[in-house]
Amino acid sequence: MDHILVVNAGSSSLKFEVFELGSGEELKRRLKGKVDGIGTRPRFTASNGAGVMAIDETFDAKKVKTLPEALTVTRDRLRAYFAGVSPSAVGHRVVHGGPAYSSPVMVDKTIIAQLEKYIPLAPLHQPSNLAVIRAIRERSPEIPQVACFDTAFHRGHPEVADRYAIPDELYAEGVRRYGFHGLSYEYIAQCLPEIAPDIAAGRVVVAHLGGGASLCAMVKGRSVESTMGFSALDGLPMGTRCGQIDPGVVLYLIGEKGMKPKEVEQFLYHDCGLKGLSGLSSDVRDLQGSCTPRGKFALDYFVYRIALLAGSLVAAMGGIDGFVFTAGIGENAPDIRQAVATRLSWFGLELDATANDKGERLISSRSARIPCYVIPTDEELMIARHTLATLRQTRTLQ
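Predicted structure:
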C-alpha cells in the first residue's frame, strides 16, 4: 500500500502527516504528529487516524537541536510504526514560489536552487522548508519529493491586483504582490460546493486567522485578491508580524534609529503584531485571559484591521455573498468572530450567538443578509492531494 508523507517545517518544529492511498484514489489519514521544542525541549507526539495518541516521547535538547535531527527522529519513529515501510513520496509546504511556480513541482537540484532565491521574501519559513527537502534528498534520494506553494492559489489575480506603483522593471524581476496561505484557501474553495453550495459560486471573503493571518477574496472559488503581498509581513497584524505598515516607518528605523536591514527584519517579523501591541504575548488565548488595557487594545486592533481589510476585499469583488472563518483563531475563538461580525454588520454579517459559541458550521443568524461559516482548514490533505496528482502526472506513482 502506498503512503504519502506530508511535511510542514517551521523554525523550531516539524509537523507531519501520513496518508494512505486507498482504492478510488482516496487518501486516508493514518498518522498526524510533530516534533516541537527543537533545541530546547524536544518532544515527538503523534496520533492515529482516529485521533488517539500513538506516540509521545521526549528527548534531550542536545540530541534534537536542528531540523535535520528532528527529521531523523521522525523517520525512525515512522519506520517503526509502519513496520519498516518507507513513504512512496513526500509532499512539502513551501511558503514562497515566487514568479516562477504557480503549481506544485517535483523537486530537483535546480528547483531547490531557484527556491533559495526567495528566502529573503519568506525568512521565517523558506529556510526551514528547504532544509528538510535537502536532508531527505541526501538520505533517501530515491523518494520523490513534491513542493506545494502557499503562493500558487493566488497566481491567477488580475495584474491590477498584483502590481505595486513602482517601475515596470521591478515587476518583471518579481517584485509584486503574491499572497499566502494559498493551500488553506484552496482547501476551503474545494469544500464550499459541498458544505456551502449557496455561496460556492459567488463572492466570498475567507478569513484565515492564526499565528499568521490573512484574508482572501474568492469569486467562483478562485482567488482574486489577498491582504498579503510581496512577503508574509503585509496585511493583517499577526502574532509577531506587523501587518500593513507605511514604508516610511522602515526608512525611519534605518535612518533615525540606526537599525541595520537584518535588525529591521528581526523586528518586523518577531517583535511586532499582537506581541508588540500588547507587550504580553503573541497568543490570542493569553490576551483574552488578560485584564490589562494593552492586551485588550491588541485584540481590538486585530478585529479593527480584519474588518477594515475585509471591506477592501468586498470592494474588489463588487459585493459579497458569504463569509468564512478558518484556521486556529478563526475556528476556535467565538469572541473574535462575534467582534468581527459586529464591525461588519453594515454588509449583512450577523451571527447566531448560540451557533457561534458552539462553533457550528453555519453560524449566521436567520435574519443575516449573507451566510457565515466556520470551516476547519486542512492544508496537509491539500498537500497530499497535490503530491498524488503530481506523481500521477509524472508517472512516478503507478
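Summary: The chain has two domains: 3-149, 197-374.
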